[in-house]
Amino acid sequence: AALCKAHRRIYCSAALSRETKPRRHLAFCTCCLESKEHEIMAKKQISKSGAAKLREELDFLVTVRRAEMAQKLKEARAQGDLSENAEYDEAKNEQAIMEAQIMEIQYTLDNSEIVDDDSISIDEVGLGSTIKVKNFRTGKIETLQIVSSNEANFKEGKISDESPIGKGALKKKVGDSFMIEAPAGELKFEILEISK
Questions:
Q1: What percent of the chain has pLDDT over 90?
Q2: Which of 51, 61, 100, 188 has a CA positioned 20 to 30 A from the CA of residue 131?
Q3: Does the pTM exceed 0.85?
Q4: 142 burial via Cβ count (<10 Å: 0-12, 13-18, 19+)
């Protein structure tokens, strides 16, 4: 099993022919592969702490969870007829999801550019920047940090560089403004401050 990065859904890699598999990674579902539109993707930026967090999660999945799943499958097989064994089917599904997570994390690490903390600019918004933004509609001023998607935590003021505000703020300088689309309509923000 694998996880389609474009459509965020799990598919069975065995269902793909050799001709349609990407050359490097099983990371896309059949419809993406047929269109070829997602086969080549630009490298994504990720912070050092974000990469370390992903490596830690990957290590846990590979060294601990795989062994746990193998034991679970062994116990389920021991219960007899696999064709009517719900616990075995459930364990197989869990295993497929876990392997998809491993592939997703490995793909992210293999295809990401790690941003060094020293390279974070205070002149222009980029990954790792802490910014003060003003919402023109509400007048509210917020302090937010631009992080990679796997580090995003809105309660901690960490927003993804792929989120509407994160994407809109990228490459902006102090005094610049940008617009984002929201359910309530367009919202305008101004960059008041940039720091590390």
A1: 50
A2: 51
A3: no
A4: middle
- How far, rounded to the nearest angstrom, does the alpha carbon of residue 182 sit from its chain's CA centroid? 22
Is the CB of residue 145 less than 8 Å from the CB of residue 130? yes
In 3D, which of 165, 124, 121, 163 has the Cα closest to residue 143? 165
Whether residue 103 contacts residue 26, with contact meaning beta carbons closer than 8 Å, is answered with yes
Q: Cite the DSSP H helix spans in the chain.
A: 30-35, 48-60, 66-77, 86-110, 164-169
Q: What is the mean pLDDT of residues 101-120?
A: 88
Residue 109's Cβ-side half-sphere holds a number of Cα atoms within 13 Å equal to 18
Higher-pLDDT residue of 20, 98: 98
Q: Whose CA is closest to 87, among 76, 98, 74, 96?
A: 76
pLDDT above 90 for 167:
yes
- C-alpha 115/C-alpha 73 separation (Å) is 40
pLDDT at 32 over 70: no
Amino acid, single-letter form, for residue 119 = S
DSSP 2-29: EE-TTT--EE-GGGS-TTTS-SS---S-
How far lies 192's CA from each of 106, 119, 155, 158, 165, in Å? Answer: 37, 21, 21, 17, 14
Could you count the other beta carbons within 10 Å of the beta carbon of residue 77?
13
